[in-house]
Structures are given as structure tokens and as C-alpha cells.
Amino acid sequence: MASTLKQFKAHALRKPAVRKAYDQLADEFAFLDEVLKARKSSGLTQADVAERIGTTQSAIARLESPTSGHSPSVGTLQKYARALGFKLQIRLIPEASTKSQTRRHS
User: Fold this and answer.
1) 3-class DSSP state of 93
2) What's the CA gap between 56 and 5, in Å, rounded?
3) What is the domain count for the chain?
4) CATH of the domain at 87
5) I need a surface site. Which of 43, 63, 77, 93 has the fewest CB within 10 A?
């Protein structure tokens, strides 16, 4: 089944519109991957995290879901990170295509 999924993904990504949408979501999926890895490494369930933060398991599920359309606040992400024994760090990193533009407008 894994090779079938890989084949489907490879076929779908050949379509320019699919590739564009996929690329636009890359940062969000990378962030969600980090969130899930952090929770897994902490050994906590969604219910455990919810209890530590003072919210519900369903709220944690929405925070961890790529399809919820929910954008948690920085404060919520800080609480989530602390509940896992982590520290939230947010950085702005220049995109390769905007480095030259930034220098011209400085």
C-alpha cells in the first residue's frame, strides 16, 4: 500500500496546480510534524496535554490537525510547548527569492 500511496503522490504532484497547493502548505505541515514529534517525545496523550493546559482533548486535536482551519495564538502555542516540557521559538527566516529584494529596499 505504501508504494501505491507514493505512486499516487508522485502522479498528483506532476500537476502544476497540485504542486503549487502542496508547496504552499509545506511550512504548515512541517510545523505540525514538529508539534506531533514533540508530544510523542514527551510521552503525553492529547488528553494529558489538555489537562495540563486547562482545555479539552478536542481543542488539542484541533491544534494538531492540518485540516481544522484553526490558527492558535502564540500564547496557546506557548502553553502547549510548556505542557510538553518544551519552549516555543518563533523565527523569521528570509526566503531565497526575497533576499535580494530586502537588500534593495533597506
Assistant:
1) coil
2) 33
3) 1
4) 1.10.260.40
5) 93
The one-letter amino acid at 24: Q
10, burial (CB in 10 Å: exposed 0-12, middle 13-18, buried 19+): exposed
Buried b / exposed e along 72-87 (16+ C-beta atoms within 10 A)? beeebeebbeebbebe
Kindly report the number of other CB atoms within 10 A of residue 57's CB atom.
Answer: 14
Residue with cell 505504501: 2
Between CA 62 and CA 75 the distance in angstroms is 16
Angstrom distance (rounded) from CA 70 to CA 82: 20
The answer to whether 50 and 59 are in contact (CB under 8 A) is yes
Q: Cα–Cα–Cα angle for 54, 90, 87, nearest 5°?
A: 45
User: What would the pLDDT profile of 69-100 be if each residue is shown by its tens digit?
Assistant: 778 999 999 999 999 999 999 999 898 875 55
At 6-26, the pLDDT tens digits run 899 899 999 999 999 888 888
- Give residues with Cβ within 8 angstroms of 18, minimum separation 6: 12
